[in-house]
Amino acid sequence: MSTILKGDRELESVLPLKQKALRINLNENTYGTFAEIGAGQETVRHFFRAGGASGTIAKAMSAYDKDFSDAIYGIEDDGRYVTETRLTTMLSHEINLMEERLDRSKNPNKIFFAYANTVTTIDFVKRFKGHGWVGIKFQLDPLEDYNEIVLHIRFKQNNSQLQQETLGKLGVNLIYGAFYLHDRPKELLKSFYDNIEKDTLEIDMVNFSGSRFMYVDNRLMSLHLVKNGMTDAVMFGPDGRNRLPAQQLYKKNILTLRGSFRPVTKVNMEMYQESKKLFLAEKKVKKERTEFIFEITLANLRSEGEINERDFLDRAVLLCSLDQTVMITNFQEYYKLVDYFAEFTKARMGLTMGVYNLIQIFDEKYYRDISGGILEAFGKLFYKDLKIYLYPLKDLETGEVITSETLKVHPRMKELYKYFKFNGRIIDLKDFNPDILEIFSRRVFNMISKGISGWEEMLPGEVVANIIKDQRLFGYSKRKHEMNKNK
To answer: CA 35, CA 88: separation in Å to the nearest integer?
Structure first.
């Protein structure tokens, strides 16, 4: 059993910061280092003020001067200081010092930790509100290896002092959560905002690692960041590790394909491959500076009621197996997604979509919540350097293949549609396979879950089908399929 948790398993309500800090201070086993750069020693002061800090704090420091910081932690390859790499270097360095300088034989029950942050607060002209990296490396038993929680934050307040105070509160919540909520990661995630208003701080990336978090899927934690309103968008790569959107999208060309991917089908991959060819053929686009994203909206994940975590992970597993970067967003409208991308880049962007989605974009009812209506939304959507790559739709009743040339929008939208169409903002994907136009994710999903044969042919390669079977994704049952075959 963890040293920290003996007799301490009860669920709790939100505790005041002072009580959290005091509880950690009064635990005779916790002992650690605080290294805070960029916004004062805001976290450790809570522990000093709570009382009993001598039994908890081994060292508290701030290396503000860059030369001092480099002398202590070394020089990063990119020469930057507010980065994830810098944070993890700080955490490892401080833990190594704890292990070197404290005799374990004299402290057999001590569980060590290192808390660190490296941040930049709002600048004088208030143009950049600031951001930072916060993390903790900690033990839960003297004989165990270390666990780690790392998160990225974006400040929303317009005052540096308020930002510093918020950072201090977050630090206390993180340390307390690491020791007392580590076995309830979803609650731990929510606890980051204890005593903090959500509109003051955004958490847009978190990663859990270590033996105590082996069962934690960081992709699922990303989903909960969006679900809990901590951020509007998160990303994870093919390796399943969460990535920082700002870092991945900075000054990049971005091509995005939105879908349910439940499961990913031949149509999805053809849309991606064909739009990718056209996008990379653009003079303004360089492959090495391009990010390709498969996006799933929270609304899509909630389409059948509450979010099903297993269902989400099934989609994620397949997209990662296809070596794709995935983004989960809270942007139901496309113009909000493009507006978000524009925070990080001015380079060319592309949206890959089907005819049905384009028709929705030109439907006025989707813009009733904004004062300027559809014109304001289109101003945000097409003011940017954006192109739409359109995949055709087959009318199942008439057999007609609908493209940008033949689709019909509301009569009031005709002239607006023509304007964007004839200005080269809407481009048809012409090199498509007509034999797969009748493949829809919903149909494939129903076939898999009900044990109806033939769905394998609708997926992009045997690997995807085999993963579904081996891992029993989307309700797949070998028994159901065998029973249907024998009917």
So the answer is: 12
Q: Give the distance from CA 6 to its chain's centroid.
A: 34
Q: What percent of the chain has pLDDT over 70?
A: 96
Task: Say yes or no to pLDDT of 5 above 60.
Answer: no
Distance CA 95, CA 145 (A): 11
Domain limits, the chain? 3-216, 247-436, 441-485
**pLDDT tens, 305-318?**
788 999 999 999 99
For 50, the token pair is 């709570």
Share of the chain above pLDDT 90, in %: 71
Task: Return the CATH number of 3-216, one of 3.90.950.20, 3.40.50.11240, 3.40.50.300, 3.40.30.10.
Answer: 3.90.950.20
- The reported pLDDT for the residue numbered 94 is 96
Number of CB atoms found within 10 A of residue 381's CB:
22
Arch. (CATH architecture) of 247-436: 3-Layer(aba) Sandwich (3.40)
User: Can you tell me the distance from the alpha carbon of 419 to that of 412, in angstroms, rounded to the nearest whole number?
Assistant: 13
Phi, psi of 220 (to 5 degrees): -65, -35
Q: Quick one: CA dihedral 36, 37, 43, 48, positive or negative?
A: positive
Backbone angles phi, psi at 309, to 5 degrees: -65, -40
Give dist(CA 212, CA 201) in Å, integer: 27
